[in-house]
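Minimal example, chain plus calcium ion.
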Amino acid sequence: MRILLAEDDPQFGESLEEALTLEGYAVDRCLRGDSVLPALALAPYDALILDIGLPGSSGFAVLKQLRERGSLLPVLLLTARDAVSDRVKGLDLGADDYLGKPFAMDELFARLRSCLRRTAGASGPLLRAGELQLDLVSRELSCKGQRLTMPVKELAVLEVMMRNHGRFVPRARLEASIYNWDSQVGSNTVEVYISHLRKRLGSEAIETLRGVGYRLL
Ligand code: CA
């Protein structure tokens, strides 16, 4: 899952970015409000974590423009702890949820998962695709009831395919889910992950359509 984080505080932003990365998300960070929409146009993001107080353009203004454009991207607002009016305004402008600073990282993760779940159309914490089942909280994966373990990025690729079960997912979409701007994207990296996944799940589990992408069957 690829997340855009808009937070101007250097230390806080960096620690958030680190924590999210360790949790298995690919994270890019914007330091200004007016760079959020251009950044969103560059890559397919799964969610936006948006601070209200940003230079250039406030989080409110960004959110308003985003929704006016018809975007359904899940947005988690970061507000001051006691600013009830900010929360109300944010929700009215189309935020999916908010968190008052300071907050515990575990709560941020839980709210982010909840935002992502709502847009995936799943009602519970389990993502199912055929015989695969992924617990979105513990990140435990099972196939036919058997526990499967794999590296974080490989699981990230599989998760995107599970969310699009039966549909072809463009290679660029899979790349975006595992890399952020800082990472080197090897030209065959997605192919390597797909080949590992085929070894685990069976060679028939993933179909390749040359020039289009991959489909989990
Ligand atoms: Ca700020």
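The domain at 126-216 is CATH 1.10.10.10 (Arc Repressor Mutant, subunit A). The chain has a mean pLDDT of 89.
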